[in-house]
Design a protein that fits this description.
By secondary structure, the protein is mostly helical. 75% of the residues lie in helices and 1% in strands. The protein has 20 helices and two strands.
Length: 491
């Protein structure tokens, strides 16, 4: 009887989108396993793999849309499909869709095992989505490891490139280090409260029943663990090397998906489980946000590699997002969610343009590769300019309103000086973003590149069109999209 009652409480609706993706990942592995061979039929099965992945992503998106607006459902009190979780699903699924579109003609030149690649993309997406839905420390850690392990493998997929192998090893070692911090932090938090579920932790902490020494030590270690995943200074050392060494579609997916997942987990933990401790962890986050915004932008100014420039740029953007979470308010969580939504399109679009500028697969694209791009490929130059302007925060593009909501949340929460730091560092960021635009439109290409036109594939063109359209449309209708991307925390 007790077992039957437990089964009745396993409401699969709460994790339906994740379940759909797992099933499609298994389908991809089966098609890849039984379709391996040299015949024309087997080649067709291989060519269908990215489209199976796209159907899986769209199906998970349909499951997310079906749950939209319905009463939140909990899975054993450990995961929930409230509006915040569904919004994170949307961000991560869109990032996964763009990653697959960018990969269709690229990844087969890097590794012949394309079935494993698309299956890992879907499983990684499952972990990222589960991070936003987790309401229990154990589930949060499991979700973290699911997408981290997949990314370690994806980073080193280009086995013929030593830089890719080195990046995977660095990412794995530092990722394991971060996981250790996370586990110890969760253990201390459990020791302080005797609970792993967020609602129980919030009740115990708000009533002053938690052991303060274990509590604050646990919070500190958890923030360090999250800091590694979202590239906060001084836990950012892995980011430039990993972003530069990984295959470019993986880098694009990692830049958007990892941030969305990790910040979703951090926001839910702080706002729902630990609001009573905000006077303590608020200052810790403020210091990390300040260091991250300043050092990330200053380091990006010095880069000649476009991938390393965007890697340091992602570090700086992590600081902006963190600034919204410092007050510990729902408004801040909403602002961070909207920022993650806009950031996914403009950043992944920029990485897609960089992929077209790589003269060989796996070879790094430098600033000089962008010189005179307007003369060789005017449409690509225009799209890159749109992404650069948006990343710098220029109106009326999506990036401007992302920063506006983030800084407004910081000011309304009593952290105006943090918003001032963000605006000053945004001015620094405009320099290196606009430097790329100047190179494309006002500098001449070198002699060997003058007649070279970057090659784009049909699926890549579709992905670029989606990224550019959302970058522009979200900027034109920010209130509409901000209304959609609201946390709506619920139990």
């Amino acid at each position: 009887m007790n077992d039957a009652m437990v089964m009745l409480n396993l409401n699969m609706q709460a994790i339906l989108p994740q379940t759909v993706l797992i099933l499609f990942a298994l389908l991809i592995m089966m098609v890849d396993a039984f379709g391996s061979g040299a015949t024309e039929e087997h080649a067709g099965a291989k060519g269908a793999l990215p489209w199976i992945a796209i159907v899986g992503i769209l199906s998970a998106g349909a499951a997310t849309a079906w749950a939209w607006g319905k009463t939140p459902v909990s899975f054993q009190g450990q995961a929930i499909n409230d509006h915040f979780a569904l919004s994170i699903n949307l961000v991560v699924l869109l990032a996964a869709l763009l990653a697959v579109l960018f990969s269709t003609s690229y990844i087969q030149k890097v590794n012949r095992q394309i079935g494993e690649y698309y299956a890992l993309i879907l499983l990684c997406t499952v972990g990222m989505m589960l991070m936003g839905a987790a309401t229990d420390l154990i589930v949060l850690f499991v979700a973290l490891e699911i997408f981290s392990l997949a990314l370690y493998i994806l980073t080193g997929l280009h086995r013929a490139n030593p830089r890719s192998t080195e990046a995977a090893m660095k990412y794995f070692l530092l990722g394991a280090f971060a996981s250790a911090f996370f586990v110890y932090g969760a253990a201390l938090l459990y020791g302080a409260t005797g609970a792993t579920q967020y609602d129980a932790i919030a009740f115990i902490v708000s009533n002053g029943q938690a052991d303060p020494y274990l509590l604050y030590a646990g919070i500190g270690l958890l923030i360090v663990g999250f800091g590694f995943k979202v590239s906060l200074v001084p836990f950012h050392m892995w980011t430039p090397d990993v972003y530069q060494g990984a295959p470019t579609p993986v880098t694009a997916f990692m830049s958007a998906g990892t941030k969305a997942a990790a910040f979703a987990g951090l926001a839910r933990l702080l706002v729902l489980a630990l609001p009573a401790a905000q006077p303590q962890w608020g200052w810790i986050l403020a210091i990390f946000a300040t260091l991250t915004m300043i050092l990330g932008n200053l380091a990006a100014v010095r880069q000649q590699s476009l991938k390393r420039m965007l890697a340091y740029s992602t570090i700086a953007h992590a600081g902006y997002i963190l600034a919204a979470l410092v007050p510990g308010t729902v408004e801040g969580a909403d602002a961070a969610l909207f920022y993650l939504f806009t950031y996914a399109f403009m950043n992944m679009g920029a990485f897609a343009i960089i992929m077209t500028l790589e003269e060989k697969v796996g070879e790094d694209a430098l600033q000089e590769n962008a010189r005179g791009l307007n003369q060789r490929a005017p449409l690509l130059a225009f799209l890159m300019a749109v992404f650069m302007f948006s990343l710098s925060g220029m109106p009326p593009l999506a990036g401007f309103f992302g920063k506006f909501f983030v800084f407004r949340a910081a000011v309304n929460g009593g952290w105006a000086w943090l918003a001032v730091v963000g605006m000053i560092t945004s001015a620094i960021a405009a320099y290196y973003y606009l430097r790329v635009v100047v190179a494309m439109y006002f500098e001449k290409p070198s002699a060997e590149r003058e007649a070279t036109v970057p090659h784009t594939w049909p699926a890549l063109q579709i992905g670029l069109a989606i990224a550019a359209a959302f970058t522009i449309v979200v900027g034109i209708l920010p209130s509409f999209w901000a209304g959609i991307m609201q946390s709506g925390f619920g139990w």
